[in-house]
Amino acid sequence: MKLTLKHTVAAVALTFISGVAMAAEHVVEMKNSGADGAMVFEPGFVKAEPGDTVKFVLVDPAHNSVSVEVPEGAEGWQGAMNEGITMTLNEEGVYVYKCTPHAALNMAGVIQVGEAVNYDSAKAAVDKLTAAAATNKDRLTGYFEQVQK
């Protein structure tokens, strides 16, 4: 069978569509109270694949999501107060994020995308956030313990 330009374009389009269809969307809620206590992202740990999106959804007021550590080559984010934000994570590694007004309460979370290529720098960010927190000192560390090397 002879391939024509029409067949080639169709094959490329199907490949693109199937790649997009395989990407997952992970929802993280920003809450005043959840299974892990007060001022929490739920879930606090997300395992994703490159190309997946993470959608931060405001459940209760006075929260945001701000990246603290991202893998090399990845873009960080700074969500506005009282607004959700959706991020497409294309770079492999560990992403650490926080809620700016509730960082002292250790309202923070971890996303692992593929391989944990920046494990050490992500752990340092987790340690720094945890040391500065007044409460919930074990919460973020517990999320980070789920990262697979």
UniProtKB/TrEMBL annotation:
Coiled-coil stretches noted in the UniProt entry, renumbered to this chain: none
Keywords recorded for this protein, A-Z: Copper, Electron transport, Metal-binding, Periplasm, Signal, Transport
One Pfam family matching this protein: Copper-bind
Biological classification of the source: Bacteria, Pseudomonadati, Pseudomonadota, Gammaproteobacteria, Pseudomonadales
Cofactor note: Binds 1 copper ion per subunit.
Every Blue (type 1) copper domain range: 28-113
Official protein name in the record: Pseudoazurin
Organism superkingdom: Bacteria
Organism: Marinobacter flavimaris
Gene Ontology terms for molecular function: copper ion binding; electron transfer activity
Binding site for Cu cation: H63, C99, H102, M107
GO cellular component: periplasmic space
The keyword Signal appears for this protein: yes
Range of residues in the leader sequence: 1-23
ATP-binding recorded as keyword: no
Cellular compartments annotated: Periplasm
Cofactor (UniProt): Cu cation
